[in-house]
Write a structure and sequence with these properties.
The protein is α/β, with parallel strands linked by helices and 206 residues long. The protein contains six helices and six strands, in the order H-E-E-E-H-H-E-H-E-H-E-H. A hairpin with a 4-residue loop joins strand 1 and strand 2.
Length: 206
Amino acid sequence: MFSPIRKIFLFLFSFVFLQAASAQKLSAGPQVLTFFSDADDTEQPYGLYLPQNYDAAKKYPLVIMLHGAGSNHRLALRRVFGKSNANGETDVEATRYFPEWKDVEYIVASPLARGTAGYQGIPEKDVYDVLADVKKRFSVDEDRVYLTGLSMGGGGTLWLGLSRPDVWAAIAPVCPAAPERVRPPTPVLSSVPEPKTTPANDPFEV
């Protein structure tokens, strides 16, 4: 017979073991996760797409998508997969759900980054915190981390891509509204490859 103290110990050990075994059992497909921001001690959301047959034993490319002004992480995740709003649907309505789309063999993350605050300062830190959180949770190929964004997010893509070219395999700014501080000399600009995004040669075709 086990003593009461030993029974308590075995119960606690079993509880901790089961919690660890069930950790990180996220479903595939589009979803919203959070990370803890030490900038203001808050949980900050980001959109995530995980491939249907995700295998932790494999290394996956990662695409970071930056939303434009007035948009958010949920809409940005839809947009990078080419999913616009339905006819007559507002952004508020479209934000409430994720439609079905074709599966891809790479991970996509879309930071909220404090909404319409640009991508410098704390929002910039949020992007790198999302990057760190995704790398911690999932198996990411360090040599295939890509950055893209639309409008304000395109400007953020230029800023983050040019200020930290060591992080990104390539950048793809779309209609960028670049911040004033982005005035790079040609050698810096040429240090980060920009993928061609014509239909015949689209590295992220979905």
